[in-house]
Amino acid sequence: MPLPDTTQVLVVGAGPNGLAAALTLATLGIKATVVEARSERSDGARGCLIHARTLEVLKTIGLSDNLKDIGIQSKGIIFHAQTNPIFNVDIAGLSQFTEFPFILLTPQSEAEWIFEENLLNHGVKVIRNSKVIGLREDTSSTEGLQVSFEDGLTIRASYVVGADGARSTVRTLAGISFKDPSTNIMYDQNPASAAFMQITLADVILDIDTSIEIRRDVVSWYLNGRIMFCPLDPPGSLVVDKHKSFWRIAIAIPPGLPTTPPRYPDHVYIQNEINERKPWKGSIRLNQLRTAATYRVRSAVADTFFKAIGNGKVLLVGDSAHVHSPTGGQGMNLGICDAVALGRAIAEHIKGSQDDAVLANYSVMRKRTAIQVIQATKRMTAIVNIPNGWLRRIANILMYAVSFITPIRRKVAWRLGGLTYRD
Q: ∠ CA(81), CA(84), CA(86), 5° rounding?
């Protein structure tokens, strides 16, 4: 599909956030142009949890039913000390508060496929192999911004939505700063991996000894080993033997180690980590490694999610606007909620008085929520990162004790499910 010369709304990035923004606009009668630098959807180990609040938001654009048909409807997240459960984040117990009392477990690539197919039904096709390299005010046109691409093409747009990830080109070209809201450390100020906690995420097929029971209706964190097992249904045409199972695993690596894990771990590395961290005597054999990557755990939020450049508007969603620890699986969820809110704000701006207050309000409200999520994920990450020894034992005892306090248990479930962030 060729790139048009002009468009009212240009969405840069065809991950779940960019697609959700374009879908929201399409349902409101506005066809955005969506560009993506990649040639195809990524199948990497990225988001895999879709929470209750996100499903509520997706229902407003007609996507919740499509998504419910894929993946596993998990009852929640259970934290363990060795093999003993000590705290159950019971999302299933929220049935009186939400239509979606579960965590939908599905690879991000599967959700993206559904988003893109629905967008295509609205007559919008993603234009791939289109890498943005420039953005400037266009004073010669009513379309306020001129965006240039690596292949030499350009497009004029009134609104440019940056949905192009943590290293967002759109955010950088717009001159919007990106730093930790607590420490004011810029996102790329300290690139040394050893200074950060890291998490290896891997999609794997496991052959699990029959003596080992890892529940397939919840996400399981084993805190003493700093390892998580998240059950997934196999994506696409992948055929799995009935004795094997498909999982996302997370391996937390504390900061300050003399050696850093590989950026893209191989089969041997993942198997060794499982062997060292699993709390059971029985074997867990890595039958197949589909994809794996190691991420530095950092937090940052954009100074603003909206910036006017001349008579053009730059707006940010998802990782372009905020990043944080993957613990708790909030990233894709926060971004999708951003995207639907942004689509509505742009539509209101186009169809209404074109008062920039509606876009500024989007920025203020979503940034406030992003900071709250960053603070919550930092607390959860700190719990995972407690070293083994007496501190770990005390933390485990405290978690077990508070698990009997119903208001605390429900508050944690409410926040994890995203219901805290309802408008």
A: 70
